[in-house]
Write a structure and sequence with these properties.
The structure holds two protein chains of two kinds. Chain A is mostly helical. Chain A has twelve helices and no strands. Chain A has one domain (2-258). Chain A is globular, with a radius of gyration of 19 Å. Chain B is α/β, with parallel strands linked by helices. Chain B has helices at 44-52, 95-106, 113-120, 124-128, 136-148, 166-181, 193-199, 217-223, 264-272, 286-294; strands at 6-15, 18-28, 33-37, 59-64, 80-83, 154-158, 185-190, 202-207, 210-216, 226-232, 245-251, 254-259, 276-282. Chain B has a six-stranded mixed beta sheet with strand order 5-6-7-3-8-9, sandwiched between helices. In chain B, helix 3 (113-120) runs antiparallel to helix 5. Classes of the chains: A mainly alpha, B alpha/beta.
């Protein structure tokens, strides 16, 4: 089953991984340009706090070269690249196969439903691992080609791990949605809405203090790359993301094992 | 001794307010070809999906190859070949990749693959192509090969000849005969009555989720009324023959009527008293039996 998922999705993984690597590589060059740093510094000082909140950016960290490289991991481009995989694989694996009619052919074989969910989860996590590793490799190669003072590629390993963790969590939720749906379109619509809603909630709760108490409801609130660059992967954030992901995965196993196909 | 391939008792399935299957009980014995007949929406596909454990029954119980299909029967599925009614594959996989994938999932070597491919006329060139370039007939052939390539003990075939040309249909009948000779059990649903009449040992007729008739093809035919056509060389009151059966055509020198088998001797005796020129007694085809059930 795992080979089956690899065959269906490997072509999509290549451009996503290359795109992420190239983007993070470019960020190291942007960070190394004094003109850029100065420009960003001025721009960020003048920017309204709402704009900084959108960047998930701490002003003091952001204007340093280390911070600019870190921005690459919170940038919508990187988030979209990761989101594509965490929606595509789970929604295609269960709901997509049901909608296409091929699930009947597979489920009529001596393949348990739990192994179908497990294969989809493994394909999801492995692909996200490749993408997070590609992003870090882009950073590492960029820093080797153009070393920046006080910026070590190893500082971004926990950031790549946090990037993997937040999208693994979203992917597990997508797997749960997919285990309930009967076609890929419905599952994609739900999980895309959930991703966008989570992102917007995190942003709005940052800039509007009356909604600040709702921020923990967004999974994106547990992903702060700037903080991870400075202090490493936070235990609380990692625990919340891991717990939500594990719960969603367990529910996906339970739901898919009992439903009519 | 092996468990009977299919045992169902009081099987029922509802989709919301719709009763898809009601109190279905049947036994399919090893080595027989069992036909499942019924109009669209009668519950044929629901039955096959229940047998595979793709859906869970609301009532009753079912065992396939001695195991409960839903949840517990994963291992038994290695001995089942399944052809769905609507054949869809992954468009970007080639035919060869598709067959190999299903053989791997089944976990048994595809010992019958080459023989089936040759019989159904799927060559290496076709198998190398992506499935998205296949016609409906080619997809159906590929579906038959994937279902039967690992020599299953039980083949569940939903509308197996849909989209096949007459030559390939003939090849399919030979394949079914070979399966029966090899001791495999075939459960097939079909709308094509001559096909069922030709290939099946026993037939169940389904209407609105309920079995309305079950037996061997010959018994079902025998249970149905005979068509009697009589010609006379002088005018007679043909309507007077109405008490023997249902008169469908009544002219002074020609009559056609449907008569129960038990009433035949009396009718023939009565006709012998009339100026009879010719008489024909037709056995009903399965199609007539089928139509009589669904009128």
């Amino acid at each position: 089953m795992l080979r089956h998922h690899a065959r269906l999705h490997r072509v999509a993984l290549v451009p996503l991984a290359l795109g992420l690597a190239l983007f993070e590589w470019l960020m190291t060059f942007v960070a190394g340009e004094p003109m850029v740093s100065r420009f960003l510094s001025e721009a960020l000082r003048a920017a309204p706090p709402q704009f900084l909140a959108l960047l998930n950016q701490d002003l003091l960290v952001g204007v340093s070269a280390r911070g600019i490289v870190g921005v690459g991991y919170a940038h919508p481009f990187s988030l979209i690249m990761m989101a594509v995989w965490s929606v595509r694989v789970p929604c295609g694996a269960l709901a997509g196969e049901i909608g296409r009619g091929t699930m009947d052919l597979m489920a009529a074989r001596p393949v348990s439903r739990s192994s179908q969910v497990a294969a989809a989860a493994l394909a999801l996590f492995a692909g996200l691992g490749v993408l997070a590793a590609s992003a870090w490799l882009g950073t590492a190669v960029g820093l080797v080609m153009r070393p920046l003072p006080e910026v070590s590629a190893f500082r971004y390993l926990p950031v790549a791990a946090a990037l993997w963790l937040v999208f693994a969590c979203f992917g597990a939720v997508a797997l749960l949605v997919s285990s309930l749906a009967s076609d890929a379109g419905t599952a994609i619509a739900w999980i895309a809405g959930l991703l966008a809603g989570s992102y917007v909630l995190d942003y709005v709760a940052r800039v509007w203090t009356r909604l600040a108490s709702l921020r923990p409801a967004s999974l994106f609130s547990y992903y702060e790359p700037q903080r991870v660059v400075e202090a490493g992967l936070g235990r609380h954030d990692a625990a919340v993301l891991a717990a939500v992901g594990a719960a969603a995965l367990a529910l996906a196993f339970a739901v898919f094992g009992r439903r009519d196909l | 001794m092996d468990a009977p391939p299919i045992q169902a008792r009081g099987l029922g399935k509802r989709y919301g307010a719709v009763v898809a299957l009601k109190d279905l009980s049947l036994d399919v014995v090893q080595g027989e070809v069992f036909g499942f007949l019924g109009p669209n929406g009668a519950g044929k596909t629901t039955t096959i999906r229940l047998l595979l454990g793709l859906i869970r029954p609301d009532g009753g119980e079912v065992k396939v190859l001695g195991r409960v299909p839903f949840g517990l029967g994963v291992a038994a599925r290695a001995d089942i070949g399944y052809l769905p009614g609507d054949m869809t594959f992954w468009p970007k996989l080639s035919g060869a990749e598709t067959l190999e994938f299903f053989a791997q999932l089944t976990g048994r070597p595809p010992v019958a693959r080459e023989r089936l491919l040759a019989r159904l006329g799927l060559g290496a060139a076709e198998l190398a192509r992506h499935v998205r370039t296949y016609s409906d007939g080619m997809k159906q052939k590929l579906g038959l090969v994937q279902a039967l390539q690992c020599e299953p003990k039980l083949a569940l075939l939903d509308e197996p000849t849909k989209g096949l040309d007459p030559l390939v249909q003939q090849a399919f009948y030979e394949i079914v005969a070979d399966l029966r000779n090899a001791g495999a059990t075939v459960f097939l649903s079909s709308h094509v009555l001559p096909e069922v009449e030709r290939t099946c040992d026993r037939v169940a007729m389904l209407r609105s989720g309920t079995v309305v008739s079950l037996g061997d093809v010959e018994t079902l035919r025998r249970a149905e009324r005979r068509r009697v056509i009589a010609d006379f060389n002088a005018d007679v009151d043909t309507t007077a023959l109405g008490h023997f059966g249902e008169v469908s055509v009544a002219r002074p020198r020609h009559v056609e009527l449907l008569v129960a088998q038990a009433a035949l001797p009396a009718l023939v005796a009565r006709l012998g008293m009339l100026p009879l020129e010719d008489v024909v007694v037709e056995r009903p085809t399965l199609e007539e039996a089928f139509l009589e059930h669904y009128r």
